[in-house]
Amino acid sequence: MTSQCQQCGEPAQTTLCKNCAKHMRRQASSLAKTIPELRALAERKAHIGERCGGVRGGEPGLPVSVHWLEVYEEAARLMLRLAGCVDLKWMLLPVEGWRPAYRAICRSWSRVVCSPSAGELADRLDRMLRRIDRLSTPSDGRVTVVQCPDCSTSLAVPQGMRDGWCPECGERLDLDMLVSGRLDAACRAVMTCSPAEAADWLTDRAGLRTTRKQVSNWLARGRLSKARRLGHGVWEFNQAELIEVRNRA
Asked: What is the top-level taxon of the source organism (predicted)?
């Protein structure tokens, strides 16, 4: 008996028509390739900025992202749910069991596409992959460098990252609080540098992308009233004022 495909509404011999079943299989394969990348994103360490001296002689690394761990676990659980169409036991596994679950899906694909839940699972696969694609679109790369309060490791916190773990000591960190504290400290600080170096500080340390030309224009227009010229191309800048003016730009 011919029924309607749960995805497109076309006539189908099973829960999904041939075209939608092929699409779903491609999506399942894409998810299998993506899940390890999600885990790597959560645990990655990055090198940002110029190499400098220090205890470890390297640049600040990124905190382990709680957010990406959650996305990884959600994607792995979806793979386990797909395998549940073959045998319910797969749904009882921890998220680390997604690889054998995917192999079971490949061995018994016909049971997946004939499942009464095939249409719903195909929708979930599409939504999951679209979400991952949106989340992994590169941002503008703005970071604020903070220190882990437990082990003093320097961490480059991307804009919008709210919590995470220190990659060195494993301490759970409130990144919102650390970034706010880092920027508050700037309110009491001054620095002696050129406009280009002030722009680099705003970009790399305060997480506010700025160019040398912008800083020079602020000086020429009197917008940096607390800045004092010390010599040819050298100024004393109030860091809080730099941040305030940049936020209004």
From this structure: Bacteria
